[in-house]
Amino acid sequence: MRVGRGSIFGLLGPNGAGKSTTIKMLTGILFPTSGSVNILGFDPTKDRKKLAYQIGTVFGQRSQLLPNLPLTDSLEFFGVMYDMSSKQIEKRIAELTELFDLGSFIDQPVRKLSLGQRMRAEVAASLIHKPKIILLDEPTI
Questions:
Q1: Tens digit of pLDDT at every position of the chain (141 positions)
Q2: How far is residue 49 CA from its own chain's centroid?
C-alpha cells in the first residue's frame, strides 16, 4: 500500500487485531516473522536509526517524556538526540509551544501534567525534528 503526501491513514480494529504490533514493525521495534516492511524507502529491520530521523511516534500507553524533569528538558533532549543545533531546538520549541499551547505548563515536571497536557506534549516531542511521517498508537487517549 502506498500513502501519498498529506494523507491520513488509520488502522481500525478490535483489541488484539495487531494495530500496535504493526506500528512497532513500521518503526523497527519488532521484526516481522514473515514478509517485509518498507517505510519511506527504509527497511526498519536494517535501517532503524536512519528511519528514526524521518518518523515521529507516540505510543499512548507509554510516555517518551522524562517524568521528573520539566517538559522543556524533554523537548531539548529530543532535539539534541536528532542532531539539531541549539538555535534550531530553541526555535522549534517556540513553534511547538505556540502550536500546542504548552506555555502554561512547559516548565512543570511531566509527572505533574494532566493526561491531556501530557498527550499534547507527547505529540509535540514527536514533532521536534520535523518528521515526514508521524505514527500515533492509541491517539484518542
A1: 565 566 667 788 888 898 899 999 999 999 999 999 999 999 999 999 999 999 999 987 888 999 999 999 999 999 999 999 999 999 999 999 999 999 999 999 999 999 999 999 999 999 999 999 999 888 777
A2: 14
| Residue 69 DSSP one-character state | S
CA–CA separation, 8 and 46 (whole Å) = 26
The cell 536528532 sits on which residue?
A: 82
How far is it, in rounded angstroms, from Cα 98 to Cα 112?
Answer: 20
**Cell representation of residue 92:** 522549534
**Cβ distance 64 to 134 under 8 Å?**
no
> Does the pTM exceed 0.85?
yes
**43 to each of 24, 50, 54, 62, 108, how far by Cα in Å?**
13, 10, 12, 24, 38
- Rounded Cα gap, residues 66 and 3, in angstroms: 33
In this structure, the number of other CB atoms found within 10 A of the CB of residue 21 comes to 14
Any idea what DSSP says for residue 70? B
